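User: Please predict the structure of the protein below. I'd like the answer in structure-token form so I can feed it into my own downstream comparison script.

Assistant: Understood. Taking the following sequence of 118 residues as input:
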Amino acid sequence: TADVGLVLDDYVFNFDKALTAGRHTIKVTNPAAQDHEIQLIQLASGKTLADMQQWLTTMSGPPPGKAIGGIASMKPGTTNYFEVDLTPGEYVAICFVPDKTDGKPHFMHGMARQFTVS
């Protein structure tokens, strides 16, 4: 049973409530026009979404965070679930799926979001 809902829309993540520390089951739906995914990354202390985006363009040096879970590419109209155990800190939700019009990963179209877990 999910305790958090997440809608993957074109270039945006819509959580139905703030994520808190602890174990969660997240129900993910994709009503959008194209495939999407969510990858959750726990940021290293002092790092931001901007640091992650910069690292993704160069992949030089250590990454500014670590992947902790998510859902791979989902077709429009599908639903899936995943579990995650969160600790307090900064996180990024990001989509790496290539856009169907220009081939760029969706995070380059703004589908990346930083949030705080308390």
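That's the full token string. Residues 49-58 form the longest helix (10 residues).
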